[in-house]
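Lab channel / #folding
Pinned by the channel admin:
"Please post every new chain as: sequence first, then the structure tokens as a reply. Keep commentary short and put observations after the output so the thread stays searchable."

First post following the new format, from NK:
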Amino acid sequence: MNMVRVNLFALACGAALLTIAGCGPDYPACEEDGDCKQGEFCVNNLCQQCRTNEDCGPGQTCASGACQPTPGYCASNADCGEGQECQNNVCVDRTTSEVAPPPPSTGGACTLEAVYFGFDSSTLDDAARNQLSAVASCVQSRGLKAVHLTGLTDPRGTEEYNMALGDRRAQSAKTYLKSLGVAAEVSASSMGEELASGADEGGWSRDRRVDVRER
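Reply from TO:
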């Protein structure tokens, strides 16, 4: 009789432990982020280090669920080799970056050039602000009534994320143009990765831009 009571007690305790422990999948399998360790994400029912590039730090890209170093990424000139400098988080030859500015435009001869951004960024660096100043001068000298800004991204990241990033870039450029006193109407939109053509960091750096067009 005592043995029966002991067995019943053991079964009751076992059931209580199962209730407390729950019936979640065994790690690294998962159904939601809560099934993973802190700082991990449930992607395709598997705990992984990252879901998008935003989950990784500067200079890293989310690839196959892990944060990987972005090839050719630089944060400052110190990250580049001799004779190079860091522009838009890419090392470029110093000779190619020191091209003399075009002569002052006269009578509508100026053009509306694109503005470039760093990896996964919508922040205007010095080069982007200088280019937007040139755009503002061109708009005013040509007497343009309206211009449109289109934000673009490189092909990495999800389509939804890149559409949002392109919009942030276009809005950042628009805000700065208006702060320069541009009287023309300025509109903005995003095309995300739709026009991306790069296959490596050199090409991706040209994909990360805002195009400026007369409207």
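NK: Residues 25-69 form one domain.
TO: also worth noting, The helical segments are 2-21, 94-97, 126-142, 159-179, 201-207.
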